[in-house]
Design brief:
- The structure is a homodimer of 225-residue chains.
- In chain A, 41% of the residues lie in helices and 24% in strands.
- The first copy, chain A, starts with 19 loop residues before the first helix and ends with a helix.
- At the A-B interface, strand 5 and helix 3 of A face strand 5 and helix 3 of B.
- Chain A binds a DNA duplex (30 and 30 nucleotides) through helix 6.
DNA sequence: CGCCCTATTGAGACTTGTCAAGTCGGGTGG
DNA sequence: CCACCCGACTTGACAAGTCTCAATAGGGCG
């Protein structure tokens, strides 16, 4: 069972270990917002006034350079939290890959509540920590792995959230998004997919629906073995 | 003026904004340790029982895979802090590039003190945040930049701490370390250095001492412009 | 059905990696 | 003090991987 299999949105990770009263305190600070598919929750360089808990939908974290290049930093899912920053402005943009809903918190208010409820602070740290490990893994993949291994790494990671009982994955993003996530060109991603299909590791039901035929082999490839 | 220019080791970032009494409380928890050049402060997979404030010396953060590949995640300097983790074991190793001294804290005690001194917690978050931004930049570099641009990116970043008034940088690490940091092969790094020298951007006083001849050009290259 | 957008495929260029030889410099021992 | 040795770095030639550019295929929608 993955989180996205549940009909009800998963309870955000920030609520872990909180009492009912504490959860209500947190809730009372939040305002639910609906985000249309394809639009931004916030842009890179926006004022950092809010934090967001993802209730439903999938988002993509991206970073742009002055030269117009884009690096996709992560894909994030319901239950996760975003908007962290250590500056006046956020260093990345977050965009909805699906229609989505989020709970929006005023940054200052939320921080203040963290002082009152240490467990809430702890949960935030834990989320940050997981994000960090993710970044480590991605950095490793980009530095050390070949194109087809990176593509497997992507499928492995994205699949962890998106996969159903038949090993089908809905790719919610474009090939360009995947390429920018992996530091590859769109054609290279496409070729890697084709090769993996030819090798019987995956199959396509449609251009955006992959079936993992050989999960063990996929994992080995993702790990560079 | 960079931190490493000072004769006295820079006061650790964790002390920012603390009262004298609070600083003393923090100090009372710490135990100074001397780390010989080349040895590890801790290894990947070690039990995460300590946190470290770097008093003197330069360290390298590395992550190994089961296949024996290595990704260098960062180079860290006096005033910085390491040992963060969100698990029972640390996900990375930290190795001294120079003879070094650190202040070691018991993780549990330090965390407890963070509860008592909110500013201390805030400082920790701020350090984590800066680390995160660094990781973002590095991820971007590895995903989007060419070999010679990455080498410039490295010089730009490492130089920020290491450079003296004559634009000389002491490379404290081997070419292999640089290569593993940038996701390149040692020969590629070497060729990039040679080309940058031929182009008059840098010069070598010795194999480990670079002079930045054209900082503006170096920056442009590092930014991929 | 035709259009448009995205994805795939192919051919060739370019970048980076691989392997091997050569150079440099520091340290050791004669 | 010099010769040698060793490791680290550099350079060269070639192979492999990835990118670029261009053409083709496929799916969704009017």
């Amino acid at each position: 069972m993955t989180q996205t299999d549940d009909k009800t949105p998963p309870r955000s990770l920030i609520y872990t270990g909180l009492t009912i009263e504490e959860c209500e305190k947190v809730d009372s600070l939040s305002r639910v917002r609906v985000i249309p598919q394809g639009s931004y929750l916030f842009h890179q360089q926006d004022e950092a006034h809010s934090l967001y808990s993802i209730l439903d939908g999938v988002f993509m974290v991206e970073r742009l350079s002055v030269t117009g290049l884009r690096q996709v930093m992560a894909f994030i899912f319901p239950g996760n939290f975003t908007g962290f920053t250590y500056d006046q402005t956020v260093e990345y943009g977050v965009r909805a890959l699906t229609p989505a809903t989020v709970a929006e918190f005023n940054r200052t208010e939320f921080m203040a509540l963290c002082e009152v409820i240490p467990q809430l602070k702890f949960n935030m740290d834990s989320i940050t920590g997981k994000l960090m490990i993710r970044l480590f893994d991605q950095l490793f993949a980009m530095g050390q792995k070949k194109a087809h291994e990176r593509v497997c790494f992507f499928l492995q990671n994205f699949g962890r959230w998106q996969i159903d009982e038949n090993n089908n994955i809905d790719l919610l993003m474009s090939r360009q998004d995947i390429a920018d996530f992996l530091g590859l060109k769109i054609e290279t991603v496409s070729r890697a997919f084709s090769q993996l299909k030819k090798d019987g590791v995956i199959n396509f039901r449609s251009s955006n629906q992959v079936t993992i035929l050989d999960p063990a082999r996929l994992k080995r490839l993702a790990d560079g073995i």
